Task: structure prediction
Amino acid sequence: MILPIVAYGDPVLRKVGVEIDDNYPELEKLISNMKETMYNASGVGLAAPQIGKSIRLFLIDASPFADDDDLSEEDRDVLKNFNKVFINAKIIKEEGKEWVFNEGCLSIPDVREDVYRQEKITIKYTDENFKEHTETLNGLAARVFQHEYDHIEGVLFTDKLSSLKKRIIKKKLENISKGKIKSDYRMRFPNLKKGN
Result:
Protein backbone atom coordinates (compact mmCIF):
# COMPACT_ATOMS: atom_id res chain seq x y z
CA MET A 1 0.00 0.00 0.00
CA ILE A 2 1.32 3.43 -0.93
CA LEU A 3 1.41 5.68 2.11
CA PRO A 4 1.32 9.50 2.12
CA ILE A 5 4.73 11.08 2.71
CA VAL A 6 4.81 13.59 5.55
CA ALA A 7 5.71 17.10 4.38
CA TYR A 8 8.15 19.57 5.87
CA GLY A 9 6.68 21.29 8.93
CA ASP A 10 5.14 18.19 10.51
CA PRO A 11 6.41 17.75 14.11
CA VAL A 12 7.05 14.01 13.54
CA LEU A 13 10.03 14.95 11.34
CA ARG A 14 11.65 16.64 14.37
CA LYS A 15 11.29 13.76 16.82
CA VAL A 16 14.12 11.37 17.65
CA GLY A 17 12.87 7.90 16.72
CA VAL A 18 12.49 5.20 19.36
CA GLU A 19 14.15 1.80 19.03
CA ILE A 20 11.98 -1.15 18.06
CA ASP A 21 12.28 -4.91 18.53
CA ASP A 22 10.98 -7.94 16.67
CA ASN A 23 7.63 -7.61 18.47
CA TYR A 24 6.84 -4.37 16.63
CA PRO A 25 3.30 -4.85 15.23
CA GLU A 26 3.09 -5.79 11.55
CA LEU A 27 6.71 -4.83 10.87
CA GLU A 28 6.93 -6.92 7.69
CA LYS A 29 3.82 -5.19 6.28
CA LEU A 30 5.18 -1.77 7.28
CA ILE A 31 8.50 -2.42 5.51
CA SER A 32 6.66 -3.65 2.41
CA ASN A 33 4.44 -0.53 2.39
CA MET A 34 7.47 1.73 2.87
CA LYS A 35 9.24 0.10 -0.10
CA GLU A 36 6.18 0.54 -2.29
CA THR A 37 5.87 4.17 -1.15
CA MET A 38 9.57 4.89 -1.80
CA TYR A 39 9.51 3.38 -5.30
CA ASN A 40 6.25 5.15 -6.17
CA ALA A 41 7.91 8.48 -5.27
CA SER A 42 11.15 7.58 -7.15
CA GLY A 43 13.14 7.86 -3.91
CA VAL A 44 16.39 6.13 -3.00
CA GLY A 45 15.59 6.12 0.71
CA LEU A 46 12.65 6.46 3.08
CA ALA A 47 12.62 6.76 6.86
CA ALA A 48 9.71 5.85 9.15
CA PRO A 49 9.24 9.48 10.34
CA GLN A 50 8.47 10.38 6.71
CA ILE A 51 5.36 8.20 6.89
CA GLY A 52 4.44 9.51 10.34
CA LYS A 53 6.09 6.89 12.57
CA SER A 54 8.67 8.05 15.08
CA ILE A 55 10.70 4.83 15.12
CA ARG A 56 14.30 3.97 14.21
CA LEU A 57 13.62 2.34 10.85
CA PHE A 58 14.62 3.33 7.33
CA LEU A 59 15.29 1.67 4.03
CA ILE A 60 17.59 2.45 1.14
CA ASP A 61 17.79 1.35 -2.48
CA ALA A 62 20.67 3.32 -3.99
CA SER A 63 20.75 1.31 -7.23
CA PRO A 64 19.60 4.30 -9.37
CA PHE A 65 22.96 5.95 -8.57
CA ALA A 66 24.79 2.95 -10.07
CA ASP A 67 24.15 4.37 -13.56
CA ASP A 68 26.30 7.45 -12.85
CA ASP A 69 29.27 7.35 -15.25
CA ASP A 70 31.24 9.76 -13.03
CA LEU A 71 31.58 7.04 -10.38
CA SER A 72 34.27 4.39 -10.26
CA GLU A 73 33.38 0.82 -11.24
CA GLU A 74 33.78 -0.20 -7.58
CA ASP A 75 31.37 2.52 -6.38
CA ARG A 76 28.83 1.57 -9.04
CA ASP A 77 28.98 -2.09 -7.93
CA VAL A 78 28.41 -1.11 -4.29
CA LEU A 79 25.44 1.12 -5.14
CA LYS A 80 23.90 -1.44 -7.50
CA ASN A 81 23.53 -3.82 -4.55
CA PHE A 82 22.89 -1.25 -1.80
CA ASN A 83 19.29 -2.20 -1.08
CA LYS A 84 18.74 -2.70 2.64
CA VAL A 85 16.49 -2.23 5.64
CA PHE A 86 18.08 -0.52 8.66
CA ILE A 87 16.60 -0.94 12.14
CA ASN A 88 17.98 0.81 15.26
CA ALA A 89 20.96 2.08 13.25
CA LYS A 90 23.85 3.89 14.89
CA ILE A 91 26.81 5.71 13.37
CA ILE A 92 29.84 4.53 15.34
CA LYS A 93 32.45 6.62 13.55
CA GLU A 94 32.58 9.34 10.87
CA GLU A 95 35.89 10.06 9.16
CA GLY A 96 37.50 11.46 6.06
CA LYS A 97 37.17 14.92 4.62
CA GLU A 98 33.79 16.51 4.09
CA TRP A 99 32.54 16.59 0.50
CA VAL A 100 29.61 18.30 -1.12
CA PHE A 101 26.69 16.71 -2.95
CA ASN A 102 23.35 18.10 -4.08
CA GLU A 103 20.65 16.53 -1.89
CA GLY A 104 16.88 16.47 -1.96
CA CYS A 105 14.21 14.87 0.20
CA LEU A 106 10.78 13.35 -0.45
CA SER A 107 9.40 15.36 2.50
CA ILE A 108 10.74 18.59 0.95
CA PRO A 109 9.80 18.38 -2.76
CA ASP A 110 11.39 20.76 -5.28
CA VAL A 111 14.16 21.83 -2.90
CA ARG A 112 17.68 20.65 -3.70
CA GLU A 113 20.80 22.07 -2.06
CA ASP A 114 24.48 21.27 -1.67
CA VAL A 115 25.21 19.54 1.65
CA TYR A 116 28.61 18.71 3.16
CA ARG A 117 29.06 15.31 4.81
CA GLN A 118 32.03 13.17 5.80
CA GLU A 119 33.00 10.58 3.21
CA LYS A 120 33.40 7.47 5.38
CA ILE A 121 31.26 6.07 8.19
CA THR A 122 31.18 2.93 10.32
CA ILE A 123 27.68 1.84 11.23
CA LYS A 124 25.88 -0.73 13.36
CA TYR A 125 22.29 -1.84 12.71
CA THR A 126 19.93 -4.78 12.61
CA ASP A 127 18.22 -5.93 9.44
CA GLU A 128 14.53 -6.88 9.05
CA ASN A 129 15.33 -10.33 10.55
CA PHE A 130 16.97 -8.62 13.56
CA LYS A 131 20.40 -9.89 12.63
CA GLU A 132 23.12 -7.45 13.75
CA HIS A 133 25.58 -5.94 11.26
CA THR A 134 28.61 -3.66 11.50
CA GLU A 135 29.76 -2.12 8.21
CA THR A 136 31.89 0.66 6.79
CA LEU A 137 30.38 2.79 4.02
CA ASN A 138 32.10 5.25 1.69
CA GLY A 139 31.09 7.94 -0.77
CA LEU A 140 27.49 7.98 -2.01
CA ALA A 141 26.47 4.91 0.02
CA ALA A 142 27.64 6.70 3.17
CA ARG A 143 25.86 9.89 2.14
CA VAL A 144 22.49 8.22 1.48
CA PHE A 145 22.79 6.42 4.82
CA GLN A 146 23.64 9.69 6.64
CA HIS A 147 20.64 11.45 5.06
CA GLU A 148 18.21 8.72 6.16
CA TYR A 149 19.89 8.36 9.56
CA ASP A 150 19.34 12.09 10.14
CA HIS A 151 15.60 11.47 9.74
CA ILE A 152 15.51 9.08 12.73
CA GLU A 153 17.45 11.71 14.69
CA GLY A 154 14.89 14.45 13.89
CA VAL A 155 17.27 16.26 11.52
CA LEU A 156 16.57 17.41 7.95
CA PHE A 157 19.14 18.18 5.25
CA THR A 158 17.99 21.82 5.28
CA ASP A 159 19.33 22.08 8.86
CA LYS A 160 22.84 21.65 7.46
CA LEU A 161 22.63 24.69 5.18
CA SER A 162 24.18 28.10 5.80
CA SER A 163 21.95 30.78 7.34
CA LEU A 164 21.95 32.60 3.98
CA LYS A 165 20.72 29.48 2.12
CA LYS A 166 18.08 28.93 4.83
CA ARG A 167 16.77 32.48 4.32
CA ILE A 168 16.68 31.99 0.54
CA ILE A 169 14.53 28.83 0.76
CA LYS A 170 12.40 29.93 3.75
CA LYS A 171 9.34 30.87 1.65
CA LYS A 172 9.54 27.60 -0.32
CA LEU A 173 9.59 25.63 2.94
CA GLU A 174 6.61 27.58 4.29
CA ASN A 175 4.67 26.84 1.10
CA ILE A 176 5.49 23.11 1.37
CA SER A 177 4.17 23.00 4.96
CA LYS A 178 0.95 24.69 3.78
CA GLY A 179 0.47 22.25 0.90
CA LYS A 180 1.14 24.91 -1.74
CA ILE A 181 3.15 22.58 -3.92
CA LYS A 182 2.59 20.07 -6.69
CA SER A 183 3.94 16.61 -6.03
CA ASP A 184 3.99 13.46 -8.16
CA TYR A 185 3.23 11.32 -5.07
CA ARG A 186 0.82 11.31 -2.13
CA MET A 187 1.72 13.71 0.66
CA ARG A 188 0.37 14.71 4.05
CA PHE A 189 0.67 18.40 4.87
CA PRO A 190 0.75 19.58 8.51
CA ASN A 191 -0.74 23.04 8.01
CA LEU A 192 -3.50 22.20 5.56
CA LYS A 193 -6.75 23.14 7.24
CA LYS A 194 -9.87 21.17 6.42
CA GLY A 195 -11.81 22.89 3.65
CA ASN A 196 -8.75 24.56 2.01
User: Anything to note?
Assistant: The chain has one domain: 5-188. The helical segments are 27-40, 73-80, 139-152, 163-177. The beta strands are 5-6, 45-47, 57-61, 83-105, 108-126, 132-138, 187-188.
